[in-house]
Automatic annotation (TrEMBL):
Start and end residues of each Fe2OG dioxygenase domain: 195-295
Gene3D superfamilies per record: B-lactam Antibiotic, Isopenicillin N Synthase, Chain
Protein name (database record): Fe2OG dioxygenase domain-containing protein
Record family assignment: Belongs to the iron/ascorbate-dependent oxidoreductase family.
GO molecular function: dioxygenase activity; metal ion binding
Listed SUPFAM superfamilies: Clavaminate synthase-like
Named cofactor requirement(s): L-ascorbate
Organism this protein belongs to: Zingiber officinale
Gene Ontology biological process terms, A to Z: defense response to oomycetes
């Protein structure tokens, strides 16, 4: 099945199994240019201002960008360079890593979940679990050789350092989000348990007919927090707000932060897990590196008493992350918000209104 990888060749036409029905296409001419995207300066001296900015961004948008975050710019450049080099490996090298098993923690694959999809997405990706590093690094790819060093040395020096710094940034952001909810700074990091961490190194080849397909269709992230490194030269990320799609153009030395489904549940619906999608273009290939912080599988997801003590009932029933993640992967990516299946009113009123994917016709 490795012959399904898009990165193994040049495409003059788009295969029919990538073409979306007319009413599910991205309609790129309706997308709003990057405007009023929240940007938070983590180098600001006024912590209360940072807390206020993040509270507003989480409540109104479900995403924001951070600058002056402390992750070295040269390290970021190396991560992107190695990512591109990997996807330019010969097909026989990439075939060694190919798998369509969603449970496999280190795999090269394509689209999203080819076992369930009827229409595929214009994307290849390398998934690497990276916490704890010492457990997973030995199974990371052994090719390519980069910067005159073997891949395994590079991953320890470059990707290993990157993973550690991203994790530290993620914990710092979770602390600020805790404070913005009126909780103690350590609350979210503590209740999420020993968080797993993995990366998706995404590659979106040039597409001859980008208006017919997606890199990834509209979806929310099932985890707690996503830290996205965008290609600095090519736009493709779009987020949904107020019934419209907004392009999130790359900002120099910035990371895009997505609130995941678990933070929406833990905040009792105050903060939004944002619908977002990736579109492709015919002129340039594009990359991104998404890092995901995920609750421990056995952790019980339930809002803190402080957020329901004022008479606001819990929006979602309690569940483990393991239960949620299995449900997420049992469905198509662009179905209704997975959290809808965990709403309390579903238990007493199964016909309660739902919130479908914004690109799916109702």
């Amino acid at each position: 099945m490795a012959d399904m990888l898009l990165s193994t060749g040049v495409h003059d036409t788009i295969p029919s199994n990538y073409v979306r029905p007319e009413n599910e296409r991205p309609h790129l001419d309706h997308v709003i240019a990057d405007a009023n995207i929240p940007v938070v300066d983590f180098g600001a001296s006024d912590k209360s201002q940072i807390i206020s900015q993040i509270e507003k961004a989480c409540r109104l948008y479900g995403f924001f960008q951070v600058v002056n975050h402390g992750i070295d710019a040269e390290l970021v450049k190396k991560v992107l360079a190695i990512t591109l080099e990997f996807f330019r490996l010969p097909p026989e090298e990439k075939a060694k890593l190919y798998s369509d098993d969603p449970a496999k923690k280190i795999r090269l694959s394509t689209s999203f979940n080819v076992r369930k999809e009827t229409v595929h997405n214009w994307r290849d990706y390398l998934r690497l679990h990276c916490y704890p590093l010492e457990e997973f690094v030995p199974d990371w790819p052994s090719n390519p050789s980069s910067f005159n060093l073997p891949w395994d040395v590079v991953t320890r020096d470059v990707f290993g350092s990157y993973c550690k710094q991203v994790r530290q940034l993620g914990f710092r952001i979770l602390g600020i989000i805790s404070l913005s909810l009126g909780l103690e700074e350590e609350y979210l990091v503590r209740v999420l348990g020993e968080q797993e961490q993995h990366m998706a190194m995404n590659y979106y080849p040039k597409c001859p007919e980008p208006e017919l397909t997606y890199g990834l269709p509209a979806h929310t992230d099932p985890n707690a927090l996503t830290i996205l490194l965008q290609d600095p030269h090519v736009s493709g990320l779009q987020v949904h707000k107020d019934g419209k799609w907004i392009a999130v153009d790359p900002k120099p030395n910035a990371f895009v932060i997505n609130i995941g489904d678990q933070l929406q549940a833990l905040s009792n619906g105050r903060y939004k897990s944002v619908w977002h999608r990736a579109v492709v273009n015919s002129n340039k290939e594009r990359m991104s590196v998404a890092s995901f912080l995920c609750p421990c599988n056995s952790v019980l997801i339930s809002p803190p008493e402080k957020l329901i003590a004022d008479g606001s009932p819990a929006v979602y029933r309690s569940y483990t992350y393991d239960e949620y993640y299995k449900k997420f992967w049992s469905r198509n990516l662009d179905q209704e918000h997975c959290l809808e299946l965990f709403k309390r009113d579903r238990e007493t009123c199964p016909d309660a209104p739902t919130f479908p994917c914004p690109d799916t016709p109702t």
